[in-house]
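Training component of the fellowship. As part of building independent skills, the fellow (R.M.) carried out the full modelling exercise for a liganded target. The chosen ligand was flavin mononucleotide. The inputs are recorded below so that the supervisory panel can assess the work.
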Amino acid sequence: MRLRGRRVLLGVTGGISVYKICELVRLLKKSNIDVQVLMTEEATKFVSPETFRVLSQREVLISTFDYLEASRVEHVQLAQEADLMVIAPATANTLAKFANGIADNMLTCTFLAYKGKVVVFPSMNSNMYQHPATQRNISILKNYKNVEVMEPASGELACGVSGKGRLPEPEEICEEIIFQLSVKDFDGKKVLVTAGPTREHIDPVRFLSNPSSGKMGYAIAKAAARRGADVWLVSGPTNLKAPNRVRFINVCSAREMFEETRKIFSSVDILIMSAAVADYRPKTFSSQKIKKEETRLKVIELEKNPDIILELSKIKSHQFVVGFAAETEEVLNNAKEKMNRKKMDMIVANLATQAFQKDTNKVIIIHKDGTTRFLPEMPKEEVADEILDEISLKI
Ligand SMILES: Cc1cc2nc3c(=O)[nH]c(=O)nc-3n(C[C@H](O)[C@H](O)[C@H](O)COP(=O)(O)O)c2cc1C
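Fellow's submitted model of the complex:
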């Protein structure tokens, strides 16, 4: 996520869900996004501008006559400097003004002056939202080339009724903003990512597995989707939420993972196998729970699972194949040997003891031509972008 210095103009209007925007500003700042908050007078009745000033570390603009610098006409200047404009929540009143070109406050003036992309999040009582006037205003806005109007969520509304009109949660709005700001260098590329552990069941309640959390693979899938790729994520059991804009396929065993990846593999450009797939499975599966008294559990006979990456490399045509090597010793040599033996184009190597379960990773990226990059320990989200950068150099 390379968003440092990217600037968002965040227009906040007078709806009950303004409280959610405090958390949104915090999340945006955490992602290194520079946020300039513009509030309507009505919005300041719900949350004080002081809260947004502290969270955004910038003065909040409300009136068209708020000049930060003597020589600037602020709404025009702001409109020239921003990478994206977001309106959340957008009241029925402000939607009507946008649709009709009314420019009677700082926010509506800036909206007209802004030529970049504007993302609007309507939020209101469901009757207000369904009203033909609001719907007409929304369809006018949808016809503006630079404006995207998001669907409100359904659920319980502040007014006590249930229906359509809820502002999405701050995390979802933040993810949409990050998506909008991300460089789309994987546009048109089809990427298949595997993640997580596999489970090899002995009986319905026992299995062989490993401590993979899936965080690395999910981070790669998320980053690829943000960068414009069409992404499939085939995942073993994890506690993670499926990333947005990703086709998510849940599997359990290595054989299921093989089946699902094989089905998709022929139609993708890039395969990134970050799953920690079990090499072996129990030879027999007991459909009933094996009782403590039984002797069978004393010895579990194993048989080999399919080597997914090796099998897919055999049938690969144009695909760029990336594998992972989680080693406990001789990381570089073992990873190179694995890459060559399994005919990968690139391998990401790490110390298994440093990678599992953690939010950070320290990896070595090795290309088949021998080019090698040693990366310092960094958050898995950043490792994901580094991996995609290396792939983009070769495809
Ligand atoms: C308690 C309360 C909650 C409100 N919530 C909303 C809302 O969620 N959505 C909306 O469109 N209007 C809501 N309104 C009405 C707006 O505040 C009103 O239309 C106002 O003029 C909007 O001004 P603005 O668009 O300049 O911010 C609410 C009003 C009150 C008093």
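The panel noted the following from the submitted structure. The chain has two domains: 7-181, 190-285+297-394. The mean pLDDT is 92.
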